[in-house]
């Protein structure tokens, strides 16, 4: 098909030089694909190098402590990716003797690996004829073929996967899959694509019908939830603070944070000060309270916005075992906490 030939030809001339394109090693490809889920190449590249340096093989990653993996992941967000990465590495080492699955079906058994990632690894590493469909591919196909089926519906997912499969170059699925993803990333961009120099502009349905800005179609997500976080940054006279490990299945699982008090609305100083006197850590204990940031820091996650304040709590002695100031930066924390730690500079 001309579409396939044009995309592949464009790729041979315009592809970026990226380290995971110089290897067929499934560990490297898998690592890059997990990092680049919901992360742009520019941001993910330093993490890719850092992970390969710290964990040069799946055996090194499997043997690592989860806390070390999370610490290295810090700043990328969606921390379940890091936990799944670690769990999958253990599975490969312990159940598969360190040998990665070599086909799409078995790759899906790895924790955190879905249709897109399995297709990418299977085609790039093992030349399996299975099409990738990511955000870039959805955009290219929706625009070129003029498809207005919402991409975030069951019908849309099935339709675009089937369409993508009919277009793949069966003789060279690795290059074709990378080509269409790259085409979406740097040519058929989400905003302001340069259609004048696009090699597909004479046959693109969206361009012909003035629909470039409206395709692909995506149904609106649920309303973003607002949450009000108040972190208690304890400062003791002997130079210690308190960090707690988050548990459960919510955000930031297994990462560390300062003791958290969540309120129903933005906390007023006087009201919050009185409320703290009933908190477990501060019951029957004298303390001095000050607000580090007058205006809430808004930390935006996919389905919720965290309106955050950091409260400095000066005490003579911590009510629980603490962390000495010099060790605070060694803990794996969400980027929101990490930014505060960098700015506050515990001394």
From TrEMBL:
<dbReference type="InterPro" id="IPR015797">
    <property type="entry name" value="NUDIX_hydrolase-like_dom_sf"/>
</dbReference>
<dbReference type="GO" id="GO:0046872">
    <property type="term" value="F:metal ion binding"/>
</dbReference>
<dbReference type="InterPro" id="IPR023170">
    <property type="entry name" value="HhH_base_excis_C"/>
</dbReference>
<keyword id="KW-0408">Iron</keyword>
<comment type="function">
    <text>Adenine glycosylase active on G-A mispairs. MutY also corrects error-prone DNA synthesis past GO lesions which are due to the oxidatively damaged form of guanine: 7,8-dihydro-8-oxoguanine (8-oxo-dGTP).</text>
</comment>
<dbReference type="InterPro" id="IPR003265">
    <property type="entry name" value="HhH-GPD_domain"/>
</dbReference>
<keyword id="KW-0378">Hydrolase</keyword>
<comment type="similarity">
    <text>Belongs to the Nth/MutY family.</text>
</comment>
<keyword id="KW-0479">Metal-binding</keyword>
<dbReference type="GO" id="GO:0006284">
    <property type="term" value="P:base-excision repair"/>
</dbReference>
<feature type="domain" description="HhH-GPD">
    <location>
        <begin position="35"/>
        <end position="186"/>
    </location>
</feature>
<keyword id="KW-0227">DNA damage</keyword>
<keyword id="KW-0411">Iron-sulfur</keyword>
<dbReference type="GO" id="GO:0032357">
    <property type="term" value="F:oxidized purine DNA binding"/>
</dbReference>
<keyword id="KW-0326">Glycosidase</keyword>
<dbReference type="InterPro" id="IPR044298">
    <property type="entry name" value="MIG/MutY"/>
</dbReference>
<dbReference type="InterPro" id="IPR005760">
    <property type="entry name" value="A/G_AdeGlyc_MutY"/>
</dbReference>
<protein>
    <recommendedName>
        <fullName>Adenine DNA glycosylase</fullName>
        <ecNumber>3.2.2.31</ecNumber>
    </recommendedName>
</protein>
<dbReference type="GO" id="GO:0035485">
    <property type="term" value="F:adenine/guanine mispair binding"/>
</dbReference>
<dbReference type="GO" id="GO:0006298">
    <property type="term" value="P:mismatch repair"/>
</dbReference>
<dbReference type="Pfam" id="PF00730">
    <property type="entry name" value="HhH-GPD"/>
</dbReference>
<dbReference type="GO" id="GO:0051539">
    <property type="term" value="F:4 iron, 4 sulfur cluster binding"/>
</dbReference>
<dbReference type="InterPro" id="IPR029119">
    <property type="entry name" value="MutY_C"/>
</dbReference>
<dbReference type="GO" id="GO:0034039">
    <property type="term" value="F:8-oxo-7,8-dihydroguanine DNA N-glycosylase activity"/>
</dbReference>
<dbReference type="GO" id="GO:0000701">
    <property type="term" value="F:purine-specific mismatch base pair DNA N-glycosylase activity"/>
</dbReference>
<keyword id="KW-0234">DNA repair</keyword>
<keyword id="KW-0004">4Fe-4S</keyword>
<dbReference type="InterPro" id="IPR011257">
    <property type="entry name" value="DNA_glycosylase"/>
</dbReference>
<dbReference type="Pfam" id="PF14815">
    <property type="entry name" value="NUDIX_4"/>
</dbReference>
């Amino acid at each position: 098909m001309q579409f396939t030939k044009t995309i592949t030809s464009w790729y041979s001339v315009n592809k970026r030089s990226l380290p995971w394109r110089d290897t067929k090693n499934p560990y490297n490809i898998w690592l890059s694909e997990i990092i680049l889920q919901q992360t742009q190449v520019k941001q993910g590249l330093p993490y890719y190098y850092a992970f390969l340096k710290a964990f040069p093989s799946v055996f090194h990653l499997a043997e690592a402590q989860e806390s070390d993996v999370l610490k290295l992941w810090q700043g990328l967000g969606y921390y379940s990716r890091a936990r799944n990465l670690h769990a999958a590495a253990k599975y490969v080492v312990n159940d598969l003797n360190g040998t990665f699955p070599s086909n799409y079906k078995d790759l899906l058994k790895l924790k955190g690996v879905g249709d897109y990632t399995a297709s990418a690894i299977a085609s790039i590493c093992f030349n399996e004829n299975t099409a990738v469909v990511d955000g870039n591919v959805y955009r290219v196909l929706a625009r070129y073929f003029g498809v207005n089926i919402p991409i975030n519906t069951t019908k849309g997912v099935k339709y675009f996967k089937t369409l993508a499969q009919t277009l793949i170059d069966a003789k060279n699925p690795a290059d074709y899959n990378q080509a269409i993803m790259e085409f979406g990333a740097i040519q058929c961009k989400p905003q302001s694509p340069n259609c004048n120099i696009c090699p597909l502009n004479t046959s693109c349905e969206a361009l012909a019908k003035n629909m470039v800005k409206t395709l692909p179609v995506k149904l609106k997500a649920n309303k973003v939830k607002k949450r009000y976080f108040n972190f208690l940054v304890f400062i003791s006279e002997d130079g210690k603070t308190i960090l707690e490990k988050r548990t459960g299945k919510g955000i930031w699982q297994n990462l560390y944070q300062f003791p958290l008090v969540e309120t129903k609305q933005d906390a007023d100083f006087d009201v919050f000060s009185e409320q703290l006197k009933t908190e477990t850590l501060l019951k029957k204990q004298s303390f001095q309270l000050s607000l580090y940031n007058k205006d809430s820091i808004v930390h935006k996650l996919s389905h919720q916005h965290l309106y955050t304040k950091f409260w400095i709590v000066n005490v003579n002695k911590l009510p629980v075992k603490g962390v000495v100031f010099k060790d605070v930066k060694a803990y794996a924390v969400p980027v929101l906490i990490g930014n505060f730690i960098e700015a506050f500079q515990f001394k």
